[in-house]
Design goal:
By secondary structure, this protein is an alpha/beta fold. Helices cover 35% and strands 11% of the residues. The structure holds zinc ion.
């Protein structure tokens, strides 16, 4: 599991730093004993493009040939809809599925049981910690604010909370969300939706737009200005960004090395890690 936090670890935290996964604003550490990945970041967005890329690099290890296809399911958060996400999925030989907007609650396996159990357990531990600190302070006659968790506490609490999520629950959560051949394992909502599929014609006209449920092909929201025909339109073959002219400065900058198209740079430099070297791999993981 990965914890994303603005806290920075101190020497006593016993974490291994991974420079190959880190950026100037986000540092990746691994806690061997607890099998927790800790990302310390100064990025503003929760799962922005950079954090998402780090997470994808950790997830997208190269699967052994003997394994069947791996399905990676994620929701349509802006940072996760990048062309780089699709590239990493493809390069590491897995299928990607982006859930249609607004359906995470029904379809995201993590949400169904894993996150809920984890959050409840995590809150319980934090509350216990606050209560114990308060009680100890009261006994000692000290009156001050309860300090934030240390990195060590954050990792211990997270690892212990995650331990409450069983393999059985993980499997159930996928089945409930419809990722199972037997429809009796699906949730009633999913079963109803499949048996009586809603018709796009029943929607008000403004919502009757095309939607690619796989998220693999971008569906443009706006049509280009009526009647406007560009002589030299340009589409980046790496990330599908559209430019009105291939001679424009923005298009040239995009294709220029180093600070241009992020997918082009990634395509050149990134290779999936062999699974035996993947951060969270050990014989008990699967
Ligand atoms: Zn591009």
């Amino acid at each position: 599991m990965a914890i994303i936090s603005k806290l920075s670890p101190s020497p006593g935290d016993n974490l291994t730093f991974h420079p190959e996964l880190s950026t100037s604003t986000s540092k990746v550490y691994f806690c061997e004993r607890k099998r927790v990945i800790f990302i310390s970041t100064t990025e503003k967005a929760w799962v922005g493009a950079k954090i998402n890329e780090i997470m994808m690099k950790i997830i997208c290890f190269k699967k052994p040939r003997s394994w069947p296809k791996i399905l990676t399911v994620y929701d349509g958060a802006p940072g996760q809809r990048n062309a780089s996400t699709r590239l990493m999925l493809r390069k590491s030989g897995r299928e990607g599925l982006i859930l249609a907007g607004g359906t995470s609650e029904r379809q995201q396996p993590n949400d169904k049981e894993i996150n809920l159990i984890f959050q409840t357990q995590m809150r319980k531990r934090v509350r216990e910690h606050v209560l114990n600190t308060r009680q100890a302070d009261h006994v000692a006659g000290i009156d001050h604010e309860v300090p934030n968790l240390t990195v060590r506490q954050l990792i211990d609490f997270s690892a212990d909370s995650l331990r409450c999520v069983s393999t059985e629950k993980c499997i159930n959560s996928f089945e409930k969300c419809g990722f199972a051949a037997e429809s009796d394992k699906w949730s009633t909502f999913i079963r109803d939706a499949v048996e009586n599929p809603p018709s796009i014609d029943d929607l008000p006209e403004e919502y009757q737009s095309a939607y690619d449920h796989t998220g693999l092909e971008p569906v443009p929201k706006r049509k280009s200005k009526k009647g406007k025909i560009y002589a030299y339109p340009f589409v980046c073959s790496y990330c599908n960004t559209e430019y009105t002219s291939k001679y424009s400065d923005s298009a040239k900058l995009h294709m220029a090395a180093e600070f241009g198209c992020p997918v082009k740079s990634l395509m050149k430099s990134w290779k999936p890690t062999p699974y035996r070297k993947a951060l969270f791999f050990d014989q008990n993981f699967f």
